[in-house]
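Hey team,

Filing this mostly as a record. A colleague (T.K.) asked me to run one chain through the structure pipeline before their review meeting, and I want the input and output archived in the tracker in case anyone asks later how it was produced. No errors, nothing strange. Just documentation.

Input sequence:
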Amino acid sequence: MTTLAFDTLKFAQTLRDKANFTQEQSEGLAVAIADATSDQLATKVNIAQLDGDLRSDFQRLDTSVQRVEFSMKAEIATMKADIKSVESRLDAKIESLRSDVLKWNVGSIGFQTLVILGAVVTLALIMGHN
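Output structure:
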């Protein structure tokens, strides 16, 4: 930060003339105030510099957030595509299982029909011989 333009001699003279300070007291107080404020006061230039720095930091942060957002959107799109692929494979497997179950059911019904027909024919033959 910039040092404040502070006329210590004029300040010391005012303290001597208006407040009846001794020369040592007025000079000591003037030097103490000058030392205390020299590092702590900001000028318009300091504030403008800080404003520029903050704006630059916010711009970099915004750019970083945009990159992360773009990356996340791409990752989400990839995940959606992966989910669609898994769904398609599951649908194909379910359809294959449905076909297998249908084959087993038809086969079981056919086998049961043959067993029942065999039993009826056997009973008919046994009844016919009596």
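Quick notes for T.K.: DSSP finds three helices and no strands in the chain. The mean pLDDT is 89.
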